[in-house]
Amino acid sequence: MGEPDGEKATFCYTMVASTMGSVAVTAVCTPFDVVKNYWQASPALNHQRINTSGLQVMRHIKDAYGWRALWNGTVTSLVYQIPSNWTFFLLYERWREDVPDGVASAAARATAVTLFSPLEFLRTRVQATTGMGEGAMATVKRVLREDSFSSFWRGLLPTLVRIHTTGSAMMAIFKEYRLRGFTVGLGPRLLKVIPGCAIMLGTYEFCHAVADSLELDRVLKDQKAELPSSSKSTG
């Protein structure tokens, strides 16, 4: 009885911790995602994408569409982040018992990315079209109308191997923009990734620390409750 209860508690703690972390990361880091995706893919910046900065892009979004536009795609981000982090942490906690932490982490992340790649693709599209009045469902319909269902997994392999573009795309960017083309959106990306990782892992570890403390209190109470009966049987 104890072991299944412990596994159930660990499952619940992991779900709660990853959910809280996902919400915190989304609330804090969505503006950086919006700036990065708008900067890299918005048609509005076609002729000035290179000769601009992340701060200028943020000001442009704020002036053109208002501050709320910096949180465009928040719901889509949550729909992607929460199940993705559930999958990652649950698989990581399970697999790290059998393989090294690095292998467990990489395998869990690859699984989560593969399963939820369509949601990440949708989030990126929604944020890249900030100001165009196109929501998630309208974006899905447009992608299916103009492309195909498989396009929702487009870019999966480069994501898995941490290569953000193919060789031909690299050459096209290099010929058009030279080396600076590869740094477009780098600043917002770093500003999002660094605090995002800190918030996610910090929240996860904090929730687990609280859960471990509660579990320890429960065990101590159970032990105290057993002491009188043990004393009587000894007497």
UniProtKB/TrEMBL annotation:
Q: Does the keyword Transport apply?
A: yes
Task: Kindly give the InterPro entries that the UniProt entry links to this protein.
Answer: MCP_dom_sf, MCP_transmembrane, Mtm1-like
Main localization category: mitochondrion
On whether Transmembrane is a keyword of this UniProt record, the answer is yes
Which Pfam families would you find in this protein's record?
Answer: Mito_carr
Which keywords does UniProt give here? Answer: Membrane, Mitochondrion, Mitochondrion inner membrane, Repeat, Transmembrane, Transmembrane helix, Transport
- According to UniProt, the name of this protein is Solute carrier 25
Protein species of origin: Perkinsus olseni (Perkinsus atlanticus)
